[in-house]
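Example record used in the benchmark description.
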Amino acid sequence: MRQLSLKGRTYPTDLNPGGTAFGGWVMAKMDKAASIAVDDIIKSPAVTVTVSRINFLKPIHNGDIFTIYTEITAIGTSSITIYVSVEVKNVETNEQYEVTSAEFKFVAINAEGKPVNVRSVLRDQIDEDTQALL
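Model output (structure tokens):
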């Protein structure tokens, strides 16, 4: 199930010399949103292990309001895969459109940093769509 995980505004300090948001800044926001989605379903720390299929479709400009949506797409033995999509609302035109998307994979870990079985750290309440991935 697609869910809203993070929302914010782009400021001048987020921009590159060309006047658009740094790609790394956008990726950091996406990683944060994905980590929130992971926290919603497990009660264990988790770390990002891969980012794939990242597509920068359109630039993000100063003042744009970004909304990041996430969806859990796969659950492995110790991993969780999340599809992350960033949409922007242009402050001048009020138009909303997708600017980037990617797939993030996290691994659940214990206090020593070793992978743990996702099923052993699931929260009591998870949505039906996520439950179906188990």
